[in-house]
Specification:
The chain has 335 residues and is an alpha+beta fold. It folds into three domains: 152 residues, Helix Hairpins (Orthogonal Bundle); 53 residues, SH3 type barrels (Roll), CATH 2.30.30.60; 88 residues, 2-Layer Sandwich (Alpha-Beta Plaits), CATH 3.30.70.100. It contains ten helices and eleven strands. The strands form three sheets. A five-stranded antiparallel sheet has the order 6-5-4-3-7. Strands 8, 9, 10 and 11 form a four-stranded antiparallel sheet that branches. The mean pLDDT is 78.
Length: 335
């Protein structure tokens, strides 16, 4: 915020310096003139038109005032967004996404309002702007198609509340992260590696997005594992389910409708395949690899403690016949 204020203050100082230089230049030209003449001449320079837009004459003074209004609009807009975000810390009952909507819409309305005031100061007729906008609508439609689409998509997402700040989402290409910011053009998500990814809003409208925390912080994890052939499947199911119950993990849910289960899923090349279904509640659902690792370690220790063999890939080779030339070569080698 300080950098923004310094930026606009620098612009204002630059304008003041230009005015000072102009005054100095005028005084050098004719030192004999009194102060009233200099002020009068300088004022004429400021108010005299330097160019026209249609029938409207534009002077230096109009431009200076318009720039100041534009600058003030940006500064007020930034201050508005900053103060709105502070409300999050005071009123926890207000949804962060609602605050984002209010801050973004208010920010753009302030800038648009300042823009039209500046145009009015310049003396530009807004009806002529409408005509120009109509003439450029075709070009804007093609050239800014994606920008407009992202803008509309952002408004839809903000009011629909399907994605909110703080949600943990998974994109169709496998990227997972927590929603950090929702803007009119894009959404920023932060991955578990602390990498910020900026994604256009249009993507969320046109593609499938998994919201892990849309309604609650509960998710079922499916953790596959295998045991060697010859192992009693019922024993495997029993020991793993008992191990999860005795683990005392505080985030594990075990209710009639969300029960920990172990199911046999098939016969693999080297193993009998099982899958552990376990329900997790809390922030750990945002760290799927870490959560799965915890249960894989538990499964590994439990199988070892119960002398249940964990298989590894292997193949049996059965030789039905051997070519006679190969037998002769083998005999020669042995002799």
């Amino acid at each position: 915020m300080k950098k923004l204020a310094i930026k606009y203050i620098s612009i204002i100082l630059f304008i003041i310096i230009l005015i000072s230089i102009s005054l100095f230049y005028l005084s050098e030209i004719s030192i004999s003139k009194d102060l009233n003449d200099l002020i009068s001449m300088f004022w004429k320079i400021l108010v005299n038109p330097i160019f026209k837009i249609g029938n409207t004459s534009i002077s230096i003074l109009n431009i200076i005032i318009a720039i100041l209004i534009f600058s003030a609009g940006f500064i007020i807009g930034k201050l508005y967004k900053k103060n709105i975000k502070k409300i999050t810390h005071k009123y926890t009952s207000i949804n962060r996404s609602t605050l984002t909507i209010i801050s973004n819409i208010g920010y753009y309305l302030i800038i648009i309002f300042a823009f039209f005031i500046g145009l009015n100061i310049l003396g530009i007729n807004l009806s002529s702007i409408a005509l120009i906008a109509g003439a450029l609508s075709v070009g804007i439609g093609f050239g800014l198609q994606n920008v407009v689409s992202n803008f509309i998509s952002g408004i839809i997402l903000m009011f629909e509340h399907s994605i909110k700040i703080g949600d943990y989402i998974e994109l169709s290409d496998g990227i997972k992260g927590r929603v950090k910011d929702i803007r009119m053009r894009s959404i920023t998500i932060t991955t578990n590696s602390n990498i910020d990814i900026i994604i256009p809003n249009q993507y969320f409208i046109q593609n499938n997005v998994i919201n892990w925390t849309m309604e609650d912080m509960i998710r079922r994890f499916e953790i596959p594992f295998g045991v060697a052939y010859g192992t009693d499947p019922q024993k495997v199911i029993t020991v793993i389910e008992e191990a999860v119950k005795k683990s005392n993990f505080p985030d594990v849910i075990d209710t009639p409708d969300k029960k920990t289960r172990v199911v046999m899923t098939g016969f693999g090349d080297s193993s009998i395949n099982f899958e552990l279904f376990v329900w997790i509640q809390g922030p750990e659902i945002s760290y799927p690899k870490r959560t799965k690792s915890r249960f894989l370690i538990l499964i590994y220790k439990t199988l070892n403690e119960n002398n249940i063999e964990i298989p590894f890939p292997q193949r049996d080779l059965h030789v039905r016949s051997i070519d006679e030339d190969i037998i002769k070569k083998l005999n020669i080698t042995e002799s």
